[in-house]
Amino acid sequence: MKSFPLFALTAFAVICLTAPAIAQSQQPTIHQIRYYHIRPDRMADFQDAVKDFNVALKKANGQHPYTIWSPLSGDTREFVRSDFYSKWSDLNSAPVNQEAELVRATARILSCTDDSRTVIVRIDPAASLPLPETPPPMIYIDWNQVQAGKGPDFHRLLREDALPAMKKAGVKAYLVGQTTFGDTAQRFEIVIGINDWSYFDGLTLLEKGMGRDAAMQFFTKRAALLAKREQQIYRYRPELSYLSASQQAAQR
């Protein structure tokens, strides 16, 4: 029996954003982010094709869940698919039935795009919170490219300073990882689940979790380690995502 490709007839070079919150039997250590840049006249076709793919995947008894996100900042024609895995071998395509239908749906999806790429991030469990059962309504993604040789210092800053502050601030979805494939290895992904834009009103999470003075010191330490920083906001698209039965029940 052959295997099927998920949205891909060739390997793409996820975030993402990534982007994030799929619970599995084990806490994931790998985040795969696929970016799809949609042709301006094919936005509706792309979304219909993804829905058809999910129908075919369900018929084929596909077990691996994934989420779809659309940007609220940056390039608004770029949809993101987010997959989590517990080990590298999980990235191998799983054999299923209905392969022809899935391949047709995949081809239709790709016909709606003018570009695509994939980024794979190794999650740092020691700097992250366990992923929630269901995705948050929105995610704030903070990409940090550190200076050469400063990766260990940046990791330590996130583990020892940022994570305790996030816990104290009551954050429910918080993920930290470092790019392994598809981008520079000096790039770190930080993902925070949020409910809406009010997240940006008032104090930052670090200020809430460690106090203003300590947060200012943190920002100074971080700035000394970074070469570049990029921040984006995405919203969860449940109608385009493929969730497990337990996730669907939790989402209702």
Quaternary state of this entry equals single chain
- SS field, number of helical segments: 6
Q: Which spans of ≥5 residues are poorly predicted at pLDDT below 50?
A: 1-25
Let me know the largest β-sheet.
8 strands, antiparallel, barrel
Structural class: alpha+beta
Strands in their spatial order, largest beta sheet:
1-3-2-8-5-7-6-4
Helicity, as a percent range: 25-40%
Q: What is the CATH architecture annotation? A: 2-Layer Sandwich
Q: How far is the N terminus from the C terminus?
A: 35 Å
Task: Please give a handful of descriptors for the protein shown.
disordered N terminus; 252 residues; Alpha-Beta Plaits; 8 strands; 8-stranded antiparallel beta barrel; 30% helix; alpha+beta
Can you walk through the features of this model?
This protein is of the alpha+beta class and 252 residues long. It has one domain: Alpha-Beta Plaits. It is 30% helix and 27% strand. An eight-stranded antiparallel barrel has the order 1-3-2-8-5-7-6-4. A hairpin with a 5-residue loop joins strand 6 and strand 7. The radius of gyration is 18 Å and the shape is globular. The protein starts with 29 loop residues before the first strand and ends with a helix.
What is the secondary structure topology, with strand pairs?
Blueprint: E1 30-38, H1 43-59, E2 67-71, E3 78-85, H2 99-111, E4 113-123, E5 138-146, H3 151-168, E6 174-181, E7 187-194, H4 205-210, H5 212-225, E8 226-236, H6 245-251
Antiparallel strand pairs: 1-3, 1-4, 2-3, 2-8, 4-6, 5-7, 5-8, 6-7
In short:
With 252 residues, this protein is α+β, with helices and mostly antiparallel strands.
